[in-house]
Amino acid sequence: MAGEQVSVQIEALKNFCVKIFQKLDVPEQDATIITDVLAAADLRGIPSHGVARLRRYVDGLRSGIMLAHPQVKTVVETPSTATIDAGAGLGQPVAYAAMKKAIEKARTVGSGFVTVRNSNHYGIAGYYAMMALPHDCIGISMTNADVLVAPTFGRNAMMGTNPIAVAAPAGNERPFVLDMATSTVPRGKLEVYDRLSKAMPLGWATDERGVSTKDAHLVLENFKKRAGGGLLPLGGEGEMFSGHKGYGLGMWVDIFCAVLSGAAYANMVYPKDADGKPLPANLGHFFGAWRLDAFRPADEFKAAMDDLQRRFKEAPRAQGQERIYIHGEKEYEATERYLAEGVPLDPKVADDLKALGKELDVTYEL
Amino acid sequence: MAGEQVSVQIEALKNFCVKIFQKLDVPEQDATIITDVLAAADLRGIPSHGVARLRRYVDGLRSGIMLAHPQVKTVVETPSTATIDAGAGLGQPVAYAAMKKAIEKARTVGSGFVTVRNSNHYGIAGYYAMMALPHDCIGISMTNADVLVAPTFGRNAMMGTNPIAVAAPAGNERPFVLDMATSTVPRGKLEVYDRLSKAMPLGWATDERGVSTKDAHLVLENFKKRAGGGLLPLGGEGEMFSGHKGYGLGMWVDIFCAVLSGAAYANMVYPKDADGKPLPANLGHFFGAWRLDAFRPADEFKAAMDDLQRRFKEAPRAQGQERIYIHGEKEYEATERYLAEGVPLDPKVADDLKALGKELDVTYEL
Known about the structure:
The structure is a homodimer. By secondary structure, the first copy, chain A, is α+β, with helices and mostly antiparallel strands. Chain A has 11 helices and 9 strands. In chain A, a hairpin with a 2-residue loop joins β2 and β3. The interface between A and B is large, with 88 and 89 residues.
């Protein structure tokens, strides 16, 4: 029976997830990385990308779409760049390795960039951008994704919510962490409105004609049936509020992640064979790091970051508003709270974890 | 008397501008670069950043805010990065040199990035990103700018329209050229609505309380009086349509251009002295280049870019729509038309150019 929302200790949750992956023959080191990325999403208040997704990874490993022991190869390399073929492995371990390589290159020549092809869903983009922070680097991370977003003036979804994450260190203030889908809202937001039978604002998504609609249920059904329509890019429908900019940001991500790496792009990700059986997703990612002191002494940069943030946080607020946020601030506060009080777990997700535990003979004691 | 819209030949217009700059002691090479950037804006259909701005550069040079013979210094350098102090010179020549340096570094180590501090208005961001194209590189260019945009939940403008430009080569198709302000619309759009006494859509700009308004005239008056309010970031007011993402993109640009280079950031650009006299703007820019074949053979990349573009252009259109555009396409088409038929010049701008010609003893024969 689905009960109330529960809170769980993050370490117990992580131990459980690592064991699940190990049962599916994922090496411990990789299992630990994947779990850490999932847990980071839950800790940052982005449960859609957290352990709620464990089932999908399990399914991917079982069906052979995601390989536990992929052949990972660096196919091109220069002093400041590289391209890695992930061999249809899980997204997180190769993404982690790629970002590490980008940071190493930044340490050596000032900046470093690594693209990845033939990969899978890698979790939250922000995780990898934030890996740069302890190295006094600015980090960037992008990925393409399942086809959900319609281009400006287009009827059908042609690309993913293609997120961009940028993380920059600060001194006494918290780092700046921008982690944004290039669509106006994610699919999860439509699911919430659908559950509540609430009308969406116009400008989030389109119906099968490619026209903005308030009907979240219709859009989600159309997704399932591939009947047309999609999420709208940041800026909404048409050009009135500059939806073409969000569309352009999404295409930029697709170019850097997939065209540059040799992965599948646009609506070619998550292909199927002639019988409709899913083939490896062939997603692409892009990672980068810039060393602060390759431009300016790191302490000067951090002092200016502190001042920049304070100027915004202490600025006069719009009527009726209580607070001006810096990007990443809400997520850092969520992490602090959840580490102290436990991570909230949706009862449906908790039930599914229990079921996974039974299926794979892993004790669920959270 | 202000007459009808005129069309002028671009070469004649450029010759005139170069002579104007030379009369103000700008070296011929620099005058040619500045003029080329201004002309590129007119040719690409962005007249707000074209020769219409000539007067502002003239004023800047006359008042000493922009120096014709600045001391330009490279202050930090690594194999893939550099920071340049522009010495309060004009923005275009140092931006041109910085982007060239980024491309050279990309040729040597795979990618290159150059920040610039102590600079001035540099024209259209896209110009510099596009410099990468003939070198088989992807280019990026960003700049901070005069304070016009309010952060999400903030009452007052705290940053510029901080544009991002990304240019990527293609094969048979035209290059992808994204060149976008991170605000929903530019100030120029409000000026058009003000002239027509037309109500703006809510979500473009805020009044002195920081609340979305339809009154373009009010917003523009408030700008002049520094009375509060501002343009809204891409995504509009609050978080309903993800205005916080546009705000984050704008802050990203400020961090890369100004915090990283040591330029003025947030609302500190265009400072004034104790008597209210303008001081050098101290703007910052960021330039970068990634060599295609540092990731993948260039011909493979270009073939995939062609295919990507065709997929979008040939995709089904939303009801009532005639065409799906690729970023840069409209501007390439404008350039072709204007090169053949002459560049349209607003009569007011033509009059101002004539007046400048008289003031500086340069023949105006366009």
